[in-house]
Amino acid sequence: MNAIKSKRNKNRAHTRLKPKNGGQSRRPKRQSSIVDSDLLIKRATNKEEVIYEAHRSFDDMPIDSRLKRNLAKKGFVKPSQIQDESLDLLKSGRNFIGIANTGTGKTAAFLIPIIERLLRQREQQTALVVVPTRELALQVEKEFISLTTGLGLYASSYIGGTSVNKDIGKLKRKSHVIIGTPGRLIDLINQKALRLNRTPILVLDEFDRMLDMGFVRDIKRIVEGMTSRRQTMLFSATIDKSQKDLIKTLVKNPVEIKVNSGTSSSDKVDQDIIKVPTGANKFKMMTDLISGAGFDKVLVFAETKRWVDRVTKKLNQAGITADQIHGNKSQNYRNNALAKFKKGSVQVLVATDVAARGIDVTGITHVINYQLPMSLDSYIHRIGRTGRAGKTGKAFTFVD
Ligand code: ADP
Ligand code: MG
Question: What is the spatial distance between Cα 374 and Cα 377, in angstroms, rounded to a whole number?
């Protein structure tokens, strides 16, 4: 501990961390829309927490026995609320809007009915799943693989940052479920490598994030090409009034299910701010914090790629193992960093918002915002990375 401390002091992290011209010289400084930082102080409400208790287990549900076996192998016994309330509707082919926080099991909610259909009739490209980020695409693919072990069903994912030519080759192989991010899907459609005119099911996952990220036009184009579309499932943590009209054009006559209880993330997270006095060494404040007991798996957010890079380097120099993910890192690099963080071979993962969207790593003990997030919405998504699966998490936000 002492050795680390003295090393840290010698680093004089603050001088090097403070970039010239305030660090944002090339871009106008963006201002966070969070004005009242008291909003970021909150005790986890474990006592009042309502855990949804399904009255049936997966075994009692109208699910193929082979799929039931895979669910059991994953340790899924009872459905989450969204899974419980949507399965029958989705199996009957209804259009669907599911509003639920992160960590409520939306992935399996849409994958189970898709797999059910595939077990009844196997058809190439039954479903297209559109997600906002690469990480999320890989996660959905992984969940599909574990749910379909031994069933001879295949999914493939198409994401930016990988070779387009490889993707074109991949599309020639058998794939029952296509998963992708909007940009890459559009690329493949433009190259006539991906044809969606016979794909009946569309899933739009994390729809609010996709809108935030400016994917509206891409989504509209993708949808236009799905001329045989029979069923659309749209999932979102929130739905803004201003988005209602757009959603109406994408999903006709839907049933809407809203789930707020259960693993609602932000209620299960102890949240606090750390005020940084003028002239104080914020970076040292953070390393001291992370060196404390219980900071086993720490996700740190920084606003820009450059900040992520810088913070990661400084953490490692201070003797705290850290890796990073952001948009300029190759997909391979990002996967690797995520895997190391999952395994626990690095203590800290430093990320930008975009890179971290939808990441599901169990057991994240702390989320730290090195800078104030740009919006409350982004804040809620970030802290939702901890406090999952019945555990209480902690979130700290540095406020200058
Ligand atoms: P969301 O998409 O709503 O954020 P996910 O689908 O990523 O949530 O699920 C969150 C976590 O909960 C994942 O680790 C997933 O494997 C797990 N999970 C989902 N459904 C169940 C279930 N019925 N029982 C136990 N764990 C589940
Ligand atoms: Mg999800």
Answer: 8
